[in-house]
Specification:
Elements: H1 17-33, E1 41-44, E2 50-53, H2 55-62, H3 64-80, H4 87-104, H5 110-136, H6 142-160, H7 171-177, H8 187-205, H9 208-217, H10 219-224, H11 229-255, H12 267-277, H13 289-308, H14 313-330, H15 333-350, H16 353-357
Antiparallel strand pairs: 1-2
Helix pairs in contact: 1-13, 2-13, 3-8, 3-9, 3-11, 3-12, 3-13, 4-5, 4-6, 4-11, 5-6, 5-11, 7-11, 9-11, 12-13, 13-14
């Protein structure tokens, strides 16, 4: 009986093969270019607290908003077979709501920050419900449905604060956007870990992961098996709304103000690419949240690498596009299938002739 050969794509890493290889190549390139690129040191911030510093810390810290958005985008992609291109605009709306509540409460206390965050979550979930309704109920293609909010979202954010860009200052907000006193790890990195753990617990204790994949693979079959297809698609957009609120609030806390025009500008494409680089099919179906998180760090490591090589900010996008196209093509189904076919043929040629005639 002939054994089926396993390719690198079918082995232990599976969907994580491409993002792991991408990370490994970037690490190797930077180690050759500058052996000290990944060195981590201890420094003191403006408040006199000892904190971790270095390119590696900068990468994981700067990619926090992108990683959170990529987790939510993965669910939408898996369930709907399309992407939400309004996450940046929705984050601006959530951030504006966050600042509006903070400014209306007088002094900024822990309860005020919590209330502002909860309100930002509610608003982002409502806009997520709007997008989800267009997709799940009215059967509009996700990119077309979310194009509405992509177009007008930042204008809505502008109206929330009356066209102003108010600043907010508080030790609590500073701690959320940078470092908590006594903890050397950037707070946004801790938030990413918390969000990832919550996703993992939800998938472990509920059937959401299975239902989402079933709906994405074959919605008609999922419906026949008693799965609420419309509800799952709608829920994926609502969960993405929560992720949008988290990312928007992190962005506001980093800057200490809300600028509706620049907050997470152009993050939509990076979010979709993080999902793709993570080995997830943009056509829906099987997914891995961990792959999208790694994909976010791949994009940010590439960005930091280009800046370290003195590439101008205007040229960074072009270089990123070239590298990302290569990664996405390598991870495409066509390339995977041809590679697997080549590996099978190679394995068959290695089988001894005597073994074929053995009984």
């Amino acid at each position: 009986m002939k054994k089926k050969s396993k390719s690198i794509f079918q082995g232990g890493l599976g969907q994580l093969t491409i993002p792991v290889i991408a990370i490994a190549l970037l690490v190797l390139f930077n180690l050759i270019r500058d052996p000290s690129f990944f060195s981590i040191g201890i420094t003191h911030n403006n408040d006199g607290n000892a904190v971790l510093a270095g390119n590696l810390i900068s990468i994981v810290n700067s990619a926090s908003e992108l990683a959170v958005l990529a987790m939510g985008m993965t669910l939408v992609t898996a369930a709907c077979g399309g992407q939400d291109i309004s996450v940046g605009a929705a984050a601006a709306i959530a951030g504006s709501t966050f600042v509006k509540v903070l400014k209306s409460g007088g002094s900024i206390s822990g309860l005020t920050v919590l209330a502002a965050f909860l309100m930002a979550c509610v608003v982002a979930m409502l806009f997520g419900t709007f997008n989800g309704t267009l997709v799940a109920v009215f059967k509009i293609q996700p990119m077309i449905a979310t194009l509405i909010l992509y177009t007008c979202g930042r204008s809505i954010a502008y109206w929330i604060n009356g066209g102003a860009t108010p600043t907010v200052s508080s030790p609590i907000l500073t701690g959320i956007g940078s470092f908590i006193p006594g903890i050397p790890i950037p707070t946004p990195v801790i938030i990413v870990v918390v969000v990832a753990v919550i996703f993992r617990l939800v998938f472990h204790f509920t059937s959401l992961e299975l239902f989402t994949q079933s709906v994405g693979i074959n919605g008609s079959a999922a419906r026949l098996n008693g799965i609420n297809v419309t509800g799952i698609k709608l829920l994926s957009f609502i969960i993405l709304g929560l992720c949008v609120a988290v990312a928007g609030c992190i962005g506001v806390c980093r800057l200490g103000l809300i600028n509706h025009e620049t907050l997470l500008l152009d993050v939509e494409m990076d979010t979709i690419l993080a999902v793709a680089i993570g080995g997830n099919s943009l056509g829906g179906g099987k997914f891995r949240i961990s792959g999208s998180i790694i994909g976010a760090y791949v994009i940010q490591m590439l960005t930091i690498t280009l800046y370290a090589m003195k590439v101008s900010s205007t040229d960074v996008k072009a270089y990123k596009a070239i590298v990302i196209i290569i990664l996405v093509v390598i991870g495409s189904p066509v390339v995977k299938s041809r590679f697997e076919k080549m590996m099978r043929q190679r394995q068959e040629r290695k089988v001894p002739v005597t073994a074929k005639g053995a009984k």
